[in-house]
Amino acid sequence: MQALIFDVDGTLADTETAHLQAFNAAFAEVGLDWCWDEALYTRLLKVAGGKERLMHYWRMVDPDEARGCKVKETIDAVHAIKTRHYAGRVSSGRLPLRPGIARLIEEAGNAGMPIAIATTTTPANLDALLRAPLGERWRERFAAIGDAGTTAVKKPAPHVYLAVLDRLGLEAGDCLAIEDSENGLRAAQAAGIPTVVTPTAYTAQDRFDDALLVLPHLGDPEQPIPQHLPGAEHRWADLAALRAWHRGTLFEAA
Ligand code: XBP
Ligand code: MG
After folding, report:
1. Which of 9, 27, 90, 249 could anchor a disulfide with 32, C-beta 3.0 to 4.6 Å?
2. In CATH, what number is assigned to the domain containing residue 221?
3. Which CATH number covers residue 27?
4. Residue 101: Cβ-neighbour burial (10 angstroms; 0-12, 13-18, 19+)
């Protein structure tokens, strides 16, 4: 295992409620009578990418209007307002990283293990989310960052993972991806990258058939992974555990 590739939304942090609130705040600000609840948003999350999600919803509720000539401009404008609201909700550390993420990033840095980001989210969202928990120079901790600014085609297409592998100069099988959703798992799988999944409430019902392992979260010494793992010697995902899972030895040991 030569590198770790992290998804962002739902993986680095449980961000989708903040995204949902930001979408609804944008709708209110522009006078749209749309208001998404969690049940609807959970379904809409099947469409990766906020702009693509807005287009999908608009076609659902008003197919004729969604064919209008100003639709792309309108979506871009609403999405820019949403991105501003999202930053307001997650910046200054208001949204914590999920268990084990800060610990694993620190451990990888100390071990000289390259880490990367492969996300469909907007670049501005990364700075808003990561500046506080990972520091002003958070970008320097990642050997490669693939996001909606670098890769237009969204998950479950593999493009963002393939672009990150290319930047890393590594083979897919030598990396490990960490994801939260079926779209993300499919994208990483299509790129040939073994993947550990840590679902959130928004993705708990997704299918993770070919995941290397599905965990409630990556755990920490003060917040161990609740259920005992096969092999049981790993109560949180550190590099040793990830290497064992990546090699598939954990199950042999069990
Ligand atoms: C999850 C997404 C993103 C976010 C919203 O990204 O699909 O679209 O839901 O962010 P990830 P934007 O690949 O990190 O799980 O509105 O900026 O798209
Ligand atoms: Mg995700």
Report:
1. 27
2. 3.40.50.1000
3. 1.10.150.240
4. buried
Q: Is 203 in the pocket of ligand 1 (CB under 6 A)?
A: no
Query: Distance (Å, rounded) from C-alpha 89 to C-alpha 253?
Result: 44
Which positions ≥6 away from 194 have C-beta within 8 Å?
173, 175, 176, 177, 212, 246
Q: Best of 121, 178, 180 to mutate for ligand 1, by most ligand atoms within 8 A of CB?
A: 121
> Residue with the nearest Cα to atom 7 of ligand 1?
48
Residue where one domain finishes, among candidates 39, 68, 93:
93
Clarify whether residues 53 and 125 are in a common domain.
no
220 is catalytic: no
- Answer yes or no: is the C-beta of 5 below 6 A from any ligand 1 atom: no
Q: Omega of the bond prior to 194 within 30 degrees of 0, cis?
A: no
Structural domain of 79: 16-93
9, 180, 206, 238: the catalytic one is: 9
31, 67: one domain? yes
Q: How many domains does the chain have?
A: 2
Same domain, 175 and 53: no
Q: Are residues 156 and 205 in the same domain?
A: yes
**Minimal-distance CA residue to ligand 1 atom 15:** 9
**pLDDT tens digits in sequence order for the chain, 254 residues long:** 999 999 999 999 999 999 999 999 999 999 999 999 999 999 999 999 999 999 999 999 999 999 999 999 999 999 999 999 999 999 999 999 999 999 999 999 999 999 999 999 999 999 999 999 999 999 999 999 999 999 999 999 999 999 999 999 999 999 999 999 999 999 999 999 999 999 999 999 999 999 999 999 999 999 998 766 555 567 899 999 999 999 985 444 44
Residues surrounding ion ligand 2 at CB below 5 Å: 7, 9-10, 180-181, 184
Q: Choose one of 93, 118, 145: the last residue of a domain.
A: 93
Q: Is residue 7 flagged as an active site residue?
A: yes
Q: Quick check: pTM over 0.90?
A: yes
